[in-house]
From TrEMBL:
Pfam families assigned: DUF1501
Name of the protein in question: DUF1501 domain-containing protein
Signal peptide: none
Species of origin: Maioricimonas rarisocia
Bilayer-crossing regions: none
Top-level taxonomic group: Bacteria
Amino acid sequence: MLAIRGRATRLCDGWTRRDVLKIGAIGVGGLTLPGLLRAEQAQGKSNRDKAVIMIYMCGAPSHQDMYDLKMDAPAEIRGEFRPIPTNVSGIEICEHLPGLARNMDKCVPLRSVYGSPNGAHDSFICYTGRPVQNQPAGGWPSIGSAVSRLQGPTNPAVPPFVGLSPDTGHPPYGSPGHPGFLGVSHAAFRPSGPSRKDMVLNGIDADRLGDRKQLLTAFDRLRRDVDASGTLEGMDSITRQAFDILTSSRLVDALDVSQEPEEVRERYGKGDPKNYGDGAPRNLEHFLMARRLVEAGARVVTLNFGRWDFHSNNFGGLKNTHLPQFDQGLSALIEDLHERGLADDVTVCAWGEFGRTPRINANAGRDHWPRVGGGLLACGGLRTGQVIGATDRLGSDIADRPIHFGEVLATLYHNLGIDVEQTTLPDLAGRPQYLVNDGYRPLEELV
């Protein structure tokens, strides 16, 4: 008998949805499993939890060399890449992104992203939609931490917020997003290779683990009254999460991409697990791991990829290292989400902290350009297959539909079922703070 575990939603005839799923194709009062699923789909219902996968492109990629090529500009601006058609008529992107080109009907290039105040390298604005300046005490929380606080875990054994990046030479390049004033209990869970063995009991049975948990609880009570910062409470939450992880294989299994069929692993590729300079790895298995994590119950997964800060040899660096691997990993993720029926429930966002200069410098590179940048959204039930925004002939200024980082973050929150106009979080002084500032709302073209 097929049994699918899930919430026991009671139906109008007294049966629970779990009862029906256990019976499967055998009719229950004329209702079969396929019929139940079709009925739920017709009513617009989904029992799946929503999730976001954000790919932070460390160091800021050049928008005019990916999704916004300027073929009518002078040679010192347009560069050496050429556009190719996509599977959506009228949309062209870089020749070194063939995988995304064949999946453009599932994507939305953003060509007019702005909001970085000074062109300083920091992942902060990608994770919060806000500039790093003028923060409240404790700092603004990232989207992963906010979702952790607001929605919590879908499964006790899987953290709601997971960050796939090792430490990097430039610390913001390795950041998964900070918890800010929400505290350490809502920080990203950051698995790394050598520490993965510590996520299993390693010979300790559950009874012994329970005894240790009781001992830790007793010690914590002794110190409770002397802690005024909230850190101890946060550590209690972390300890509880650690015990949940240790007593379940769910997270460890999600991180183990070797469980995937070989053809799936080949589609994603391996990339390079070593950090690129002072940036992040170009680890393509992280794209697959991100998909496995959201399937296991993670709500927000951040993935840090490469180092796109090409002040010199911009075209060689993009063509020979970054664009082909990024294209392979991201297109495989988008296709996989669609094939596995997750495309409406998981929103994918890939971007960097600003754009690059229109004029190519003397070292064949592009420098920082905070006036406009780009990005890509995919899946999430969005109205895909369109481009939003435009720049002028040189790619230097926004010509149509400015898109602030905060609007994109508002869209991601919306897709997670969170109303940015109504939802607030208390800061360290107890004041309610909105998730995005300046009244930014979800992109109306998409939702």
